[in-house]
């Protein structure tokens, strides 16, 4: 097996097939009980209720729940004790506007070896929406979520809603549902799980090898019980949101469409979407009703007006310096296969080394210590590179772990060759079809929205 997305040499390290490319249990837990079933009680409560996740586990995870000490004002009974004292850290060693091809077949999975079978697309990418509400033609790009305002539920909504609206709409999902879940699961951002570990949806399992253990409340019918569960630890809120959206559209290893009932292609209204999550995403018997009441109280359905046809624009994004290298046919020169000085910082034949070499070939510069493929976005920001969430030609694109079929340990990085008018992208990349093999792939607008784009210097 080959490894991909790795920053440095990974001798002896292999990853499984892309079907088990998600982290540990991947389930998201939530008993989501608040002091009452009304949305107003959720402002201080972190309720959670067992949502199976993108995990690579072979058995269904038990449905865990929210964390303890999650809020100061709620009557939540989801978690009854503080987390264990240590966090597990065992980690593995403006755009070109052309029309996207209508007959492409998106490779939504990596090949771990050159002979591995391709995993089918998620139908979330291709199934038409049956949502009948208003849809925007264009929308201004939203910044990634660096911090949240927990002074009130309204402030919390304002701090995440613009980003949620775009990611949800581009991925066939109801933003209103996701916002309501964030309010309910994190107590409007006031929970310990949210403030210390950025896990605003109480997703269980491990992320990049990091997790925290909580005792949580679950339900069997109307009867509560308690279970110790591991929850994912993130580096920031945007990382948590990307991971959550990926879970909702990819499902679990045993059922890729476990959450399909909540997609806009299956649910005409947010009420139907909420009911579709009852007993699947959460064990709390009143979960769907709580979501509906929160949506109605805060009028969250106003954020459901983005879909795959909405164009995300940002006039402030600087052009890539690599655009000057384009040929007369408006395409970039073919990859020359040269290994430039500094390329030895990245694993041979991997995506990281390819993007490094590709950028230098085209006249740009990028650092030799950008990390694994899924870490390029965060590390680029820390190193002073301009980054954006809007697909941009001539930029490097960093996919979080598990997104676009990437490894749940390493993520992936590629080079944006072209951006289409629907915000989908054409990328060139390495180690998707085998070590040291360069290939191209068309990435849907929904998946592209989950990535971070890095301007070369």
TrEMBL record:
Biased segments, Low complexity type: 12-102
PROSITE patterns reported for this sequence: CHAP
Keyword Signal: no
Region named Disordered: 1-104
Molecular function terms from GO: amidase activity
Domain Peptidase C51 span(s) in chain numbering: 326-455
Keyword annotations from UniProtKB, A to Z: Hydrolase
Pfam annotation, one family: CHAP
UniProt record similarity statement: Belongs to the glycosyl hydrolase 73 family.
Protein's UniProt name: Amidase domain-containing protein
Source taxonomy: Bacteria, Bacillati, Bacillota, Bacilli, Lactobacillales
